[in-house]
Design a protein that fits this description.
With 89 residues, this protein is mainly β. It has one domain: Immunoglobulin-like (Sandwich), CATH 2.60.40. 0% of the residues lie in helices and 45% in strands. It has a 4-stranded antiparallel beta sheet with strand order 3-2-5-6, with no helix packed on it. A hairpin with a 4-residue loop joins β5 and β6. It is globular.
Length: 89
């Protein structure tokens, strides 16, 4: 999944995920409150690009599934500080 962190677009490289691409691929993005903020299905065997400009800065879970199997990846939108004592160089 690129870029890391992502901003206005998130690209999922299906080749890098161990999932059967002969079926429809479903992508869900879930925020830290557990709310589903994105849900869409794709018929592709390569890359999926998602417009994420409407999402706020923060941490998300991206779930990619095909009906039989799923993979969940943690993703970060924007440059956030995870520790209050961390300084930006």
């Amino acid at each position: 999944m690129t870029p890391v962190p992502f901003n206005n677009f998130l690209t999922i490289n299906i080749d890098e995920i161990n999932i059967d691409t002969s079926k429809k691929i479903n992508v869900e993005i879930i925020n830290t409150n557990g709310a589903k903020v994105y849900n869409n299905s794709f018929l592709t065997k390569q890359k999926i690009q998602i417009n994420t400009s409407q999402l706020t800065t923060g941490i998300y879970l991206v779930r990619v599934s095909n009906g039989n199997a799923s993979t969940t990846i943690k993703a970060v939108k924007g440059n956030i500080l995870l520790d209050k004592n961390e300084t930006k160089e």
